[in-house]
């Protein structure tokens, strides 16, 4: 329930505060006084886009604040999901800076417009004149029937199941696309893989074979040089190793004559040991190097095969070939497994479809059960609001399974008891649409937990008894809901629990809009003026008094 609305610096409103009743709140005033501007400001805290041009004073920011009393269980899930503090009162605020920047707050916590719109949709329904266009939309018509059928939980279950079904459908489509694309390259990839499997290279094999070939191709040159080195080190007439040993011995003999000589002698000893080791390694290496013509031929063939594959695949190393082989194998494995995946998805999709159709049939049954009761109740209300010849008819037609079930719901309308029903948009006038919307919303409101219903001049195009009946319907709605209504009809204003009057006032060089709650006597005078003009007659005053007292 909207307890208080505070508006600062919006349109022709400098500053305005209004406390609303929990039942039927009526707002009246002269045309252009600013009645609908109130609802324009209110729409800002309901999540509508802000227009910087709407500032009263271009140098100050605009602030619109609404204080709502809510049932915690109604919005608890939203507050928890958005990590907001929940109290008995919810304060919603919008600010528009002179630069055009807009900010929104829920209990002083900054939020985005999507969050704001989602929250306020739980407890406010704002009906403006152009909202009658919703009546023409199949989505709105379906929502009306679903609300009356109390299909909320079932629709939620169906929607989740449908989303999962659509996800599985997409997965199946993607898998089939992969299979079709893979089938185009499978044979070629298999040929490439067989070629690599036949070559059967090991890690670093081409590089190691190239190095081995270099050794074998120069075996004689290597052995000749190694033999010469070994001979000079160990077997020459004056072997280098032996000479180093003699020099070390001579130097060692001088150790007592100079303090630096022992270190030099030690270094000579180390050189002797190192050359001994080198000579041994040369001998072993010489024994290992052997010319092998058959091995050279085998290595040449192996390396040629490797280089051919490297060039073919634009690669550089053996390990890159091995990686390619793994990729080709994985690709072929995927192709072999994709059929199994497709079969699994087809089975899963079939099960989901059966479940979804079952939920859809439940929705259809419950929707069809609402057809006649809805038609009867709306038609009764149409008579009440001065449309005795008008009839509504609900057409529920089967369609292919979709996001909202197995039905297409269309409201058909006959304004003149002609039994020629047609879609609402083709046959209903603006005034008829307004009254029809009121009748429908009064039924829906009885099924939904919307605490606040707001109507902006829904009485357009009616007067007299029809206006009186609209007032009766609103009064009845206000027993269970807070209703805020802007009206020009005295018959509706007479039903108010709280009557507010909007007026303009000149202050300095500016004209601003104000609002005040009327006393009982002020209400009578105001309603009398609505009946007969600025200077109401005694009869008008008496008539107004009767309206207020009823």
UniProtKB/TrEMBL annotation:
Using the record for this protein, list the coiled-coil segments as residue ranges, or answer none: 192-219
Q: Name one GO biological process term.
A: SOS response
GO terms of molecular function: ATP binding
Q: Which terms are listed as keywords in the entry? A: ATP-binding, Coiled coil, DNA damage, DNA repair, Nucleotide-binding
All residue ranges annotated as the RecF/RecN/SMC N-terminal domain in the record: 1-508
Q: Which SUPFAM superfamilies match?
A: P-loop containing nucleoside triphosphate hydrolases
Q: Which Pfam family, any one of them, does this sequence belong to?
A: SMC_N
Gene Ontology cellular component terms for the protein in this record? bacterial nucleoid
Fetch the PANTHER family from UniProt: DNA REPAIR PROTEIN RECN
Described function = May be involved in recombinational repair of damaged DNA.
What family name appears in the similarity comment?
Answer: Belongs to the RecN family.
- What is the official name of this protein in its record? DNA repair protein RecN
- Organism encoding this protein: Chitinophaga caeni
Lineage from the top down? Bacteria, Pseudomonadati, Bacteroidota, Chitinophagia, Chitinophagales
